[in-house]
From TrEMBL:
Domain Aconitase/3-isopropylmalate dehydratase large subunit alpha/beta/alpha: 1-466
Catalytic activity: citrate = D-threo-isocitrate
Keyword field: 4Fe-4S, Iron, Iron-sulfur, Lyase, Metal-binding
Cofactor: [4Fe-4S] cluster
Pfam families: Aconitase (PF00330), Aconitase_C (PF00694)
NCBIfam families: aconitase_1, PRK09277.1, PRK12881.1
EC number: 4.2.1.3
Molecular function as annotated in GO: 4 iron, 4 sulfur cluster binding; aconitate hydratase activity; metal ion binding
Domain (Aconitase A/isopropylmalate dehydratase small subunit swivel) ranges: 596-722
Job description of the protein: Catalyzes the isomerization of citrate to isocitrate via cis-aconitate.
Protein name (Swiss-Prot/TrEMBL): Aconitate hydratase
Length: 796
């Protein structure tokens, strides 16, 4: 943007944050090394080696821009760092007090709603505009009241609760709505429990999952080392404003604009979610039978479509001198990961105590299972060490692998070659169990087709069991040294034990020590060179940082709105297409367009890194768009990143087909079903399609953040009317489409689409506000902001 403004003859320094910006680097570290005391150090060293250029670029930004705080790699996950340290709750500036609020470039920014702070995720495109002083625009949302009563039963955790809530709320369709939790049950939930529930707002579809500030909030602020003076100020201000919640029946229940829901916490049972979506809730007691059904069910969200012969296949694994048998359901990854759960001392201590009791009884984890522990902040390791529980984790292979998102975002690293070969030899449906928040197909690891979300103690339990096809009620985890069967119930910690450990070891001093030098505590970061130039000096040979093309042809004048004429369909997709399908963050597969580009740029296969690490290079990200190996495109005869180039009727990689259309000057659209763009707030899921030449997406419904990102990149989101879809309209995606647009384009217009087969149908424009219409007219939100900042804006 600074380059573009300079090209207009304007001062590049106008591109500068006008609001406080905190940037936490947490997405780049991978589980390259696990089950080793050297895992943390080696993974951090590899992270810096791989990402040197990216980190140097970010450090340039720290000096080139004002009002920006950068938290270096190895410090933790942004949402946990925000919760434990950065969040103010109440701002004090120029003699004025006002409530804290935040927008973040990750969908799980909502975690802070658990602390009573208004916050949600936006795409990076919209965030840049906010940094430059642009307001957030939105349709006034309905507020859903979710009443909680009772208390969690012994053995049930906050993870079980959030997976239950996620399923309940997904069924109610709360996309674009606020959810506020209230009722006497809230008083029994710790702040960390609430943060877990708020964190998964994107998974249940809501813009926010909000808990008002109350006594538990103040208790947490004290626990995390905030000053007594600051806590008193927060309490006094919020009480004076009527924003402080009491659960003593002195306040009436709020009145909500939307529907109200009810959950008795005592009905929550230990649970998992999977095997392919976070809202597919399965009680722990049903997991074994549910998985067996999934194996034979037709291919879908709850099915793998295996024949009877395929279901009984096994594969022999020779590993470190021992022979093991892999079969469908074998656990090959068990990861305690993600801010969703590692921010919660109760579930982390439960996992550690379970591990200790397992070790004491002589139980072990099979050595081929890739176990890892990746806490969201250093505080976790501090209290685990202080309590003497960290060693129990390590004895089961759960060594600290790094402070970052890691397995939760697909940075799970490679499986050992012997394990990968055994899986591939029989095409087994093996499993990953993780304490993350997403388990979409192809996200966790390309070889784990069944992926289950679970609490940290259940991650340990499944690592011990070694298989998803396991009934904890009737099957022992193993035998102790006396040959006695050991069941999960024998080693699961009690509430009294958990309370003792949390009270004794999760102390304010740990948080104060951990965050005292958060900005300068990374030696590798401190050694990075600093340049003071206002405009970044691009290196054309770099495969990490490349000057993007988004502003290259931009003119000062606002372009005319033009119809989209005779567009071909690039992809014809079904329901629940996630941003992981659209723009994967994981490994770059050999033989893919992105891999070929890197090879042609003299990058070795071992240095490919991930799509997530290559987001600074548009050439790679365009080639990685729709590069998910599990993508189902109705225009392709096989799953994966392929499509039909309709003029030639030749199937090819999606990028190659898009290039042919672009060369011929043919615009493109995408057809899709419900919940298009669910999942991460990944702005490349909009940038990538724009680079491929996509002008519009026609879907049955959109997830909130992705719809906004499409508008932000100048792609028109259109919604089928009256429960119609491509299928009900008899469209196979091989037609051409003309979408009539005029200069009168407005909010929520009903638009006509003429199809080359003679059919006509109507759609609703999902430009939801006047400012979004303006963004679209300008070709995207950043073009709008640039013209606004330019000295000579004019319209033709």
């Amino acid at each position: 943007m600074r380059d573009a403004l300079a090209a207009f003859g304007d001062s590049p320094s106008k591109i500068n944050p006008l609001v406080p910006v905190d940037l936490v680097i947490d997405h780049s570290v991978q589980v390259d090394v696990s089950r080793s005391p050297e895992a943390l150090e080696r993974n951090q060293a590899i992270e810096f080696e791989r990402n040197y250029e990216r980190f140097a670029f970010l450090k340039w930004g720290a000096t080139a821009f004002d009002n920006m705080l950068i938290v270096p790699p190895g410090s933790g996950i942004v949402h946990q760092v925000n919760l434990e340290y950065l969040a103010r709750v109440v701002f004090q500036k120029d003699g004025l007090l006002y409530p804290d609020s935040v927008v973040g470039t990750d969908s799980h920014t909502t975690m802070i709603d658990g602390l009573g702070i208004t916050g949600w995720g936006v795409g990076g495109i919209e965030a840049e505009a906010v940094m430059l002083g642009n307001p957030i625009s939105m349709v006034l949302p309905e507020v859903i009241g979710f009443k909680l009563v009772g208390q969690l039963s012994p053995g049930a955790t906050a993870t079980d609760l959030v997976l239950t809530c996620t399923t309940m709320l997904r069924k109610r369709v709360v996309v674009g709505k606020f959810v506020e939790f209230y009722g006497p049950g809230c008083a029994s939930l710790s702040l960390a429990d609430r943060a877990t529930i708020a964190n998964m707002s994107p998974e249940y579809g809501a813009t926010m999952g909000y808990f008002p500030v109350d006594e538990q909030s103040l208790k947490y602020l004290h626990q995390t080392g905030r000053s007594a003076e600051k806590i008193r100020l927060i309490e006094a201000y919020l009480k004076a404003q009527g924003l402080f919640r009491l659960y003593d029946e002195s306040q009436p229940d709020p009145i909500y604009s939307g529907e109200e829901m009810l959950l008795d916490l005592s009905t929550v049972v230990p649970s998992l979610a999977g095997p392919k979506r976070p809202h597919d809730h399965v009680p722990l007691s049903d997991v074994k039978q549910d998985f067996l059904k999934c194996l034979s069910n037709p291919v879908g969200f709850k099915g793998f479509g295996l024949s009877e012969t395929q279901r009984t296949k096994t594969s022999s694994l020779e590993y470190k001198g021992e022979t093991y048998t892999l079969r469908n359901g074998s656990v090959v990854i068990a990861s305690i990961t993600s801010c969703t759960n590692t921010s919660n001392p109760s579930v982390m201590l439960a996992a550690a105590l379970l591990a200790k009791k397992a070790v004491d009884r002589g139980l072990r984890v099979r050595p081929y299972i890739k176990t890892s522990l990746s806490p969201g902040s250093g505080v976790v390791i501090h209290y685990l060490e202080a309590s003497g529980l960290l060693s129990a984790f390590e004895k089961l292979g759960f060594y600290n692998a790094g402070y970052g998102c890691m397995t939760c975002i697909g940075n799970s690293g490679d499986l050992d070659e012997e394990v990968a070969s055994a899986i591939n030899s029989e095409d087994l449906v093996v499993a990953a169990v993780l304490s993350g928040n997403r388990n979409f197909e192809g996200r966790v690891h390309p070889l784990t087709r069944a992926n289950y979300l679970a609490s940290p103690p259940l991650c340990v339990a499944y690592a011990l069991a070694g298989s998803i096809e396991f009934d904890f009620q009737t099957e022992p985890l193993g035998q102790d040294r006396e040959g006695k069967d050991v069941y999960l119930s024998d080693i699961f910690p009690s509430q009294e034990e958990l309370q003792h450990y949390e009270t004794s070891y999760v102390l304010p001093s740990l948080f104060e020590d951990c965050y005292r030098n958060i900005q300068g505590g990374n030696a590798r970061w401190n050694q990075l060179p600093i340049t003071g130039a206002d405009i970044y000096e691009w290196d054309e040979k770099s495969t990490y940082i490349h000057k993007p093309p988004f502003f290259l042809s931009m003119k000062r004048e606002v372009p005319l709105v033009k119809s989209i004429e005779n567009a071909y369909c690039l992809l014809n997709l079904g329901d629940s297409i996630t941003t992981d399908h659209i723009s994967p963050a994981g490994k770059i597969a050999r033989g893919s367009p992105a891999a070929n580009f890197l090879l042609n740029s003299n990058v070795l296969v071992k240095d490919f890194n991930t799509y997530g690490a290559r987001r600074g290079n548009d050439e790679i990200m365009a080639r990685g768009t729709f590069a998910n190996i599990r993508l189902i495109n109705k225009l392709s005869s096989k799953p994966g990143p392929y499509t039909l180039h309709i003029p030639s009727m030749v199937e090819s990689p999606i990028f190659d087909a898009a290039e042919k259309y672009t060369t011929a000057g043919i615009p493109l659209i995408i057809l899709a079903g419900r919940e298009y763009g669910s999942g991460s707030s990944r702005d490349w899921a909009a940038k990538g399609p724009q680079l491929l030449g996509v002008k519009a997406v026609i879907a049955q419904s959109f997830e909130r953040i992705h719809r906004s990102n499409l508008v932000g990149m100048g792609i028109l989101p259109l919604e089928f009317l009256n429960e119609e879809s491509a299928d009900t309209l008899g469209l196979n995606g091989q037609e051409q489409f003309t979408i009539t647009l005029t200069s009168e384009l407005g909010v929520g217009d009903i638009l006509e689409i003429v199809v080359s087969n003679g059919k006509t149908f109507f759609v609703k424009s999902r430009l939801d506000t006047e400012v979004e219409v303006e963004y679209y007219r300008h070709g995207g939100i950043l073009h709008y902001v640039l013209r606004l900042l330019s000295n000579q804006p004019r319209t033709v």
